[in-house]
Amino acid sequence: MANLLSENSTTYSALSGYNSSYATDYTSDLTTKDELDKTVLDRANLYNPMYYLNDKYDGYNTSNVAKHWRIRTGITQGDTALTTETNLMLALKNDPQVSDVDFAIVWGMAHVQAERTGSSTTNFIDWVNSLS
To answer: Last residue of a domain, which of 22, 47, 63?
Structure first.
């Protein structure tokens, strides 16, 4: 973003309210480290499982990925796109550390409680117990 702002500074400076310090401010904000010596990008990468599962990221092959996964997603969720879980499932299925991925899309349900039958808690516990 800082590069975009710098490269187009002539165009943007013609806009009302634009401040030429935006590019340097943006860079400064993104490179500032917190009390644990982490940047905003470091924190975003920690939150993104694809950072560890996709070879396009620096985090690829830097962690031990769980062998078993159970993902349920509701078709009517409003907090993320269905492709988020689908991409995660595909990345996991292609990861040699992963033994199995139990993935299901549930019609008419939201993201968190998506189950075709029963309760999400009971179903999850039963799934964990089935692994032992």
So the answer is: 63
* Maximum distance among all Cα pairs of the chain, rounded to whole angstroms: 65
| Dihedral over Cα of 83, 87, 88, 92: its sign | positive
**For residue range 77-97, what is the model confidence (pLDDT) as tens digits?**
777 788 888 999 999 999 999
pTM over 0.85: no
CB 29 within 8 A of CB 23: no
Shared domain for 70 and 128, answered yes or no, is yes
Q: Which residues constitute the domain of residue 78?
A: 66-132
**CB contact at 8 A, 95 and 59:** no
CA separation (Å) from 91 to 38, 56, 72, 96?
26, 12, 16, 10
70 and 132 part of one domain: yes
